[in-house]
Every structure is written in structure tokens, then in C-alpha cells.
Amino acid sequence: MGGDSGGRLHAFRSLAGNRTLVRVLAAYALFVLTEYAAWIAMLVFAYGHGGATVAGIVAVAQLVPGAILAPVMAAIADRRSPVVLLAGGYLVQAAGMTAAAAAIFAGVPVAFYVSAVIACIAQTAIRPAQAALVPSVAATADQLTAVNVVVSWLESAGMVTSGLLAGILIALAGVGSVFAVCAGLAVIAVLLAAGTRVTLAPLREGSPAVLADVAEVCG
Fold it and tell me: If DSSP codes are grouped into helix, strand and coil, which group holds residue 198?
């Protein structure tokens, strides 16, 4: 037990010392928060303007394109620069959320739905791009292990926090404020991702150093 705890502590300390990974994870934390908060706000808006039927249609309109494009984004992330894809995904997400907020404030529901779908489609690039990027900036297997754990934590915490954020903003200033705030957070994610510099050699399967680290972690 003590050895396991010490190994985990060492992994997280190693992760904290990798500024590039910290930037990537900070951007991802903002992404998870905005993803779920915007999703909740979209359903609230759709339900308020057309009931359960409209809310269901809008939900499907967001999910289907994402499901279709997810494999394509994964292939692009493997073959192209994951930093560009990651920052681009955050940028389009921010633009879509900005347009969605503007459409709500202008009273144009159709434009809001289209913008929300665009933001959702952009989000399909985030996870594949990050998955392709992380091995290139992680210096050790310990760091990769720690990243996987932190990502799981961020997903769980994001679900809870986003609901709280969306609820407070909707109560105080309406659905449009949720998309406005999420757009601002997405811009911060863009800056974090765009500032990422891949300076370390990618971890390669079969590398003696990597195999030694993996054996140590598993043991």
C-alpha cells in the first residue's frame, strides 16, 4: 500500500513539473466545464421554446454530426499537428458559443441552434487531439499515468460543476449568459492550447526507457 501511494505521489509530482502537460490539462478542464454547461443551457432553451420534442431534436442534431466526425478527427489528430487541431477545436467552439449567445440576445432561435451545433461539432476534435498530443509531451510513463487519472477527475468534476454554473447563470441572467461565459472560458482554452510547445521527443513503444518506466509503474 505504502509503495503504491508513494508511486502515485511521485507520478503527480512529475506531472506538476511538466508545464506543457499542465497547460493542456488546464485547457481541458475549461473545455469540460463549457461542454456540459452549454449542453444544459441548450436543452433548457430548447425546452422552453418548443417543449420536449424540440429539445430532443436539437440534442440529436448536436450528437449525430459529432458521432460521425469523431473517427475523422481521430485520424486527423494522428496524421497532422495535434496542437493545431486542439487549438482549432477550442477556437471554433469559442466562436460557436459566441454566436449562440449573440443569437439568444438578438432573439433569433434558429441562429442559436445552428451556432450551438457548430460548437458541438468542434468539440469532437478536442479529445482525439489531446490523446494524440499527450504522449508527445509526457517525459515518462509516470506522467502518462497521472494524466489519465487527472482527466478522469476533470470529467467527473466538470459534470457537477457545469450543472452548478449553468443553473446559477440561468437564474441570474438567462441562457444567453451561459454561452457568453462559456465562450470566454473557451478563449482562455485557445490561448493555453495555442501556447503549447512540443519540445520533448514522443514516447515510442519499445523504447527501453519507456519499458522500464512502465514496468516500474505496473509493479
Answer: coil
- CA 127 and chain centroid, separation: 6
Angstrom distance (rounded) from CA 74 to CA 80 = 10
Hey, what domains does the chain have and what are their CATH numbers?
2-218 (1.20.1250.20)
Half-sphere exposure of 82 (CA within 13 A, CB side): 21
CB 25 within 8 A of CB 37: no
CA separation for the pair 194, 132 (Å, rounded): 15
More confident: 213 or 138: 138
Cell of 149: 487519472
To which residue does cell 494522428 refer? 78
Residue reference for cell 463549457: 34
Q: Which tens digit of pLDDT belongs to each residue from 10-62?
A: 667 777 778 888 899 999 999 999 999 998 998 899 888 888 888 888 778 77
CB 166 within 8 A of CB 102: no
Give dist(CA 158, CA 169) in Å, integer: 16
pLDDT in tens, 162-207: 999 999 999 999 999 999 999 999 999 999 988 776 654 444 444 3
Considering Cα of 124, then 31, then 62, then 114, what sign does the dihedral take? negative
